[in-house]
Here is the input.
Amino acid sequence: MTTLYPFAAAHAGVDEAGRGPLVGSVFAAAVMLPEDYCLTGLDDSKKLSEKKRDELAAAIKEQATAWCVASASAKEILSLNILHATMLAMRRAVEGLDRLPEKVWIDGNRIPQGLTVAAEAVVKGDTKIAQIAAASILAKTARDAEMYALHERYPQYGFNRHKGYGTAEHLAALRQYGALPEHRAAFAPVRDVLAQGRLFGN
Here is the structure.
C-alpha cells in the first residue's frame, strides 16, 4: 500500500478525474482533512476497486473539515480545451470549499490560474499526499456517478461499463447511434462521427 503523507490541516489537496473520456464533464475535488483522520486504505483512486472508492468517498465526506466537488461541462471542454477546462474545474473546487485553505496541493505539474491562495503542483501527488488522494477519490466517484446517470438515459452506449472511455464498445456505439450532446465534440472519434452528420436520434 502507498505511504501517504498528510500536510497541515489548514491545507487542501486537489485532483481531477475524467480528462481522457470521450463524453461528459471533467471533475475535480478539493479536500481538507483533520489531523486525526482515520481513512483505512486511503490511496490513489486508480489503485482502488470501485467498492473501496465508494466506501472511502463516504468516509472522506464524513471526516473532512471541508470538501468540494466541481466540474466543467462538455460544452466548456469544447470552448476551452480539456486542459483549461480541467484547470477551471480545479479552481471551482477550491473556491467551493467552506473554508479558505492556507495552501493547496495540486496533483500534476500545473497550477490553475486565478487561485487566491498559495498553491504548489506535485507530480503523482495522489500517491504521495493524503489530501490529494482523498480528492482523487471524490473526483472519481463523482465522475462515475455522472456516467451511471448517463447510462440510465442512454443504455445502448454502455456507459456503466466503460465510463465514457474510448473502448471498442463505446466506439462501436458511437458509429451505430451517433454522438450525444454530452459527447466531447473536439475529441477525434466524436469529431469524426459529427463530421458524418451522425447525431443521436437522427
